[in-house]
């Protein structure tokens, strides 16, 4: 493995063909999509709010500033430790530590060398001056958008990495991020938003396997669906189901459908580029990303971010790609390559 820099909302469902990877046994994820009718995104951090508003005709003014305690807590992450015999899980955990620590340094206006800056930066002074909060040194730099570009390798499978193997690597990176966040901020809830059920199962398996418990005993305190909530909750589910329970086609986001941290899994191996149309549904992307109260970490891949031109001939897919590229252009980012043979 190598690491490099590089209120309330209402929705209504619309019938569409199902993807082969969807939850065909679940009402809203097999035969429905998500259409936004009304929005109130003033609750978002200013940079995330500015990004989400790019697909709406009317801009809005964010009414909050990212809490400094988030930056301070992430800044307490210990530097990765050396290991005499590092395995792939150790390497992934070290990446997660460096990634989140670098994000905290950016928020606290400290130097860092692990993340590449966004192509487009948020006009921080304009946003803060337009609100009731004065600019001070204590005001953290708004950083709600972060990107991990995942690349999976395999000598056994060469260039034909299967989807299930790729998802296993994606889940391992996700579990490492969850572990480090819980170490620093055990009281903050986390959403892991997955387009497909197979991703949901892989992430839950990775969390249950406790590959990263040498960092934190707090994994024992995580609560998955169906378990008693002890202190904070990690919710791993498909994007449609993260909307909440409803017995009608009208789905309503409530306070419980938000989390401080949202990790969105939107990566593909080259062998499954045909799933790009389902993955790049803009409304699904918007729903997942806009659930973050503090930070959204998008795990994607070059197959999704920079697909072949002929993969974007569908108008809706092209809109989704424009949206996810807009996220990438605004996000601090890093690359990770995972050897799936070592997992």
TrEMBL record:
Residues 135-302 form the DNA2/NAM7 helicase-like C-terminal domain. Keywords: ATP-binding, Helicase, Hydrolase, Nucleotide-binding. GO terms for molecular function: 5'-3' DNA helicase activity; ATP binding; hydrolase activity. InterPro entries: Coronavir_polyprotein_1ab (IPR050534), DNA2/NAM7-like_C (IPR041679), P-loop_NTPase (IPR027417). PANTHER family: DNA-BINDING PROTEIN SMUBP-2, DNA2/NAM7 HELICASE FAMILY MEMBER. This is DNA2/NAM7 helicase-like C-terminal domain-containing protein. The lineage of its organism: Eukaryota, Fungi, Dikarya, Basidiomycota, Agaricomycotina.
């Amino acid at each position: 493995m190598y690491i490099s820099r590089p209120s309330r909302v209402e929705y209504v469902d619309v019938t569409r063909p199902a993807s082969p990877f969807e939850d065909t046994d679940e009402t809203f994820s097999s035969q429905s999509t998500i259409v936004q009718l009304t929005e109130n995104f003033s609750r978002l951090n200013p940079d995330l709010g500015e990004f989400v508003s790019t697909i709406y005709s009317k801009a809005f003014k964010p009414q909050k500033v990212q809490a400094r305690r988030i930056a301070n807590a992430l800044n307490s992450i210990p530097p990765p430790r050396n290991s005499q015999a590092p395995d792939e899980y150790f390497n992934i955990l070290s990446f997660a530590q460096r990634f989140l620590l670098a994000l905290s340094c950016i928020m606290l206006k400290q130097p860092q060398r692990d993340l590449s800056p966004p192509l487009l930066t948020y006009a921080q002074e304009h946003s803060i001056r337009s609100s009731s909060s004065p600019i001070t040194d204590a005001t953290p730099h708004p950083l709600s958008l972060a990107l991990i570009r995942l690349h999976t390798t395999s000598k056994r499978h060469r260039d034909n990495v299967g989807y299930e193997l790729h998802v296993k690597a994606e889940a391992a990176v996700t579990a490492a991020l969850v572990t480090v966040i819980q170490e620093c901020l055990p009281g903050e809830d986390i959403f892991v938003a997955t387009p497909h059920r197979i991703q949901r199962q892989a992430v839950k398996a990775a969390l249950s396997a406790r590959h990263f418990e040498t960092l934190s005993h707090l994994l024992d305190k995580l609560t998955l669906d169906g378990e008693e909530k002890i202190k904070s909750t990690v919710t791993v589910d498909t994007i449609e189901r993260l909307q909440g329970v409803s017995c009608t086609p009208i789905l309503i986001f409530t306070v419980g459908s938000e989390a401080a941290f949202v990790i969105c899994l939107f990566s593909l191996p080259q062998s499954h580029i045909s799933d790009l149309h389902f993955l790049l549904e803009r409304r699904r992307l918007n729903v997942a990303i806009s659930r973050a109260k503090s930070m959204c970490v998008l795990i994607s891949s070059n197959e999704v971010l920079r697909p072949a031109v002929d993969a974007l001939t569908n108008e809706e897919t092209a809109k989704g790609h424009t949206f996810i590229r807009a996220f990438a252009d605004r996000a601090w980012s890093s690359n990770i390559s995972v050897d799936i043979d070592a997992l």
